[in-house]
Amino acid sequence: MTDIDPMAVKLFSFLVFTKLEGAVTAGMIHLGDRLGLYQAMASLDRPLTIDELSSHLSLAPRWVQEWAHNQAAAKVIEFTRDDRGRETFWLRPEARMVLADEENPAFGMGMFHRLPQTMAALERLPESFRTGMGHDYDSHGPEGAVGIERSFEPWSNAFLIPLVVPALDGVVSKLDGGARVADIGCGAGGAALRLAQRFPRSEVVGYDISRYALDRAETKLRESGVANARFVDPRREPLPDDGSLDLVTAFDCVHDMTHPADVMRAIRRSLKPDGTWLLVDIKALDTFEENAAKNPMASLMYGISVMSCMSSALSAPGGAGLGTLGLPESKARAMAEEAGFTRFRRLDIDHSVNAFYEVRP
Ligand SMILES: C[S@@+](CC[C@H](N)C(=O)[O-])C[C@H]1O[C@@H](n2cnc3c(N)ncnc32)[C@H](O)[C@@H]1O
Question: Out of 14, 147, 277, 354, which residue is the most buried by the measure of CB atoms under 10 Å away?
Fold first, then answer.
């Protein structure tokens, strides 16, 4: 013990506690989003005193002040002392996009929305490490589904129709003419509804095993008045197996599935010979070393995998357990071939975490 450099111990402790700082500040970001603090700062759009910010939201000033001190110390929000010596807080333009503008593709509050539910999984996980069995998405409750929805909607809202669908060979004209479409692992249904709205002659069916996600999708379907979409649980109504679909989509869900190889075979059976499967999954690399070296978010992703993605993928006996970084291109390609697909093309679409593949029979 005496040979250990005390400075090395200090530095290592610092490293460990920076992780706790991140987790605690993430909790404060959750509160900023949930209480509308960022929205208020964005809409008032000037340096605000604590009294101004708290009275705008009818919140207790001392609590808002301590929150603001955390956020400014973490450099999430900005701090200036005004010419009367009062503390004021404000958002940089780029912070407004990430923290407060739900319509912006850079909006990032979805994962923070579901932080309490994600962290609550820690109570169940010691048992999972002993038994090997994980928990599906519904273990995160209804707010878990809303968090997923808010995570994926902003980018999809901005880019699915103008950028992603046109990148698929011949798909826009098929959809314009009237095509049969399935969105697998549809979550709260945003992508399915957008496709149905933009292509009113096509029929879109969203499939998900989460009742909370399906409830959200049903609510949004009713609110939208869209008539050519519906949502089902594939355990009650499986994908058709008669080669009748023109397009199948799967956004950020195959790595979460307990039996992805079976699902890929079912997708292959559902598609027409000239049909298309749009597979969107995390831009993982082949080995742990590559992910750790090249992906600055690798530790976040492996952790989310334990609490959410891999847990879901091990939530039934015999689960494949791929997890967040478990479906790199090489594996997706090999599994697609195994499922009977013969063509596999990576699309030239720039996304911070996802890769896009056109997979065809
Ligand atoms: C990360 S979410 C993505 C949801 C949605 N595609 C989106 O982009 O917002 C993964 C979804 O896959 C669903 N899922 C997992 N296994 C599934 C399966 N075997 N069949 C259908 N959906 C599944 C989960 O319930 C969850 O809603």
Answer: 277
